[in-house]
Design goal:
alpha+beta; 11 strands; 16% strand; disordered C terminus
Length: 430
């Protein structure tokens, strides 16, 4: 482009750790976060885990002069029976806003907080859910880019940069990781582990490695320790990202880890996560030109490594089997509970008719037993009949979509290979 107009565009992503009754000093921290945002120079901020609506209202009111528009997103996912995990109840998902930038035209910003992982990497019961989310997010990002928009996706993705989910976003979704784009790949804490030299240099290490979660320098982290910091080999994780669709009109020039300081009056970190920000350059787009689309050919329709497809499908098939067996267990529990309830009612009727000579406390035992099995049966019955089927349908749909995509790519690749070979033969004949 010649004589193009450019401008900067600054974005922040921060997980605020705002679960009611669980997150410590929640209200105090939210006020401090809001004060900093009100005096910031960000154009776009994306906050996760602002789960209490009054906290959202507080932040919105304090930042109203700086940010004239705000939106509160809520979606559903996870399993309702796992009430200690909280994901199903707080409504994690993906939301988006579309802005018309005066220089770069339409820019769509997506914010997401994907399902958290529970347990080890080899025993993650929600991996299928998270892969499903990543696949859908990647497709949404691709569709937005196909419309010629600048695309940004930010949030807490709950995954390392070597995970399948990260690859789905960056390869299948054709997005660029802003922090990795501006920092050496070898600095990624998920690829190596280096001990802190001393506590004073913690912020330098955090910035160099891109750490946002479970840092020993974060007061809310389970790894937090001032005395043992030199011996702590766990640098934490980089799971908060700002992704963008890199084009000749839109690229990243800076990305940092932020909100790493301690709140002086409360002597604690702002959140259990550090934030990440990115500064972009946006160039003027010719609305009459299709060059901004920069859509690759079918060979590059997805940059996802073909060797990943089979493990992806195998993972979904395994998760489908687990879902089916879990639903079956819940339904068996429901029917057994129903049998025990009916048995209790019959026993109580026989006792009332004096057909049995019970122990004096038998009425209380029957009442407690029937009540327990009624509650258990209702809960497991509802989840087994309703959620179990919906989860399996969702996994089957995703499997069909991935398999169809793979088959389409293979067929197209084989076709183009035959055409290339035929052209080569014709060249030799000539």
């Amino acid at each position: 482009m010649t004589d193009s107009i450019t401008t900067t565009f600054k974005v922040l992503s921060l997980n605020c750790w705002g679960l009611k009754f669980v997150s410590k000093k929640r209200t105090e921290r939210m006020k401090c976060i809001a004060d900093i945002l009100a005096d910031s120079d960000y154009e776009i901020i994306g906050l996760q885990e602002v789960w209490v609506y009054s906290d959202y209202e507080l932040i919105r009111e304090k930042t109203r002069q700086r940010f004239s528009f705000s939106r509160f997103f809520q979606r559903l996912n996870g399993r309702p029976i796992k009430f200690t995990h909280g994901d199903w109840y707080v409504g994690k998902g993906v939301g988006s806003i579309l802005i018309e930038h005066p220089v770069a035209g339409y820019t769509e910003i997506f914010i997401s907080h994907t399902h958290a992982g529970y347990g080890s990497k080899n025993d993650d019961i929600y991996l299928g859910h998270r892969v499903s989310q990543a696949w859908e997010i990647a497709n949404i990002l691709r569709n937005s880019a196909a419309r010629g928009r600048n695309v940004i996706a930010l949030g807490d993705f709950n995954n390392d940069s070597d995970s399948l989910l990260y690859k789905l976003i960056t390869q299948h979704g054709q997005m660029t990781d802003a922090w990795a784009f501006q920092n050496s790949p070898s600095s990624d804490p998920n690829q190596q582990q280096i001990a802190f030299i001393n506590f004073k240099e913690r912020n330098t290490e955090i910035g160099d490695k891109g750490i946002t979660s479970n840092s020993p320098a974060n007061t809310w982290s389970r790894n937090y320790s001032i005395r043992d910091l030199n011996q702590n080999q766990n640098l934490g994780q980089r799971i908060d990202y700002i992704f963008f669709r890199k084009t000749s009109q839109f690229w990243c020039v800076r990305s940092r880890v932020v909100f790493t300081d301690i709140i002086p009056e409360y002597r604690c970190s702002y959140s259990d996560h550090f934030g990440v920000d990115a500064t972009f350059i946006l160039a003027a787009t010719d609305k009459n030109s299709s060059s901004a689309l920069e859509e690759p050919g079918f060979e590059s329709f997805s940059n996802l490594d073909p060797v990943i497809y089979r493990p992806l499908i195998d993972l979904l098939r395994k998760d489908l089997e687990v879902s089916a067996s879990t639903a079956q267990f819940q339904l068996i529990t429901f029917w057994l509970s129903l049998i025990f309830v009916i048995g209790g009612i019959i026993a109580e009727a026989l006792i009332t008719a004096k057909a049995l000579e019970p122990h004096p406390w038998i009425h209380i035992f029957i009442l407690i037993g029937v009540t327990t099995f009624v509650i258990t049966g209702v809960i497991f019955g509802l989840i087994g009949f309703l959620f179990g089927n919906s989860e399996q349908r969702g996994l089957k749909h995703l499997m069909d979509e991935v398999e169809s995509f793979v088959e389409g790519k293979i067929v197209n690749f084989d076709k183009r290979t035959k055409e290339f070979n035929q052209d080569s033969k014709n060249d030799k004949t000539i």
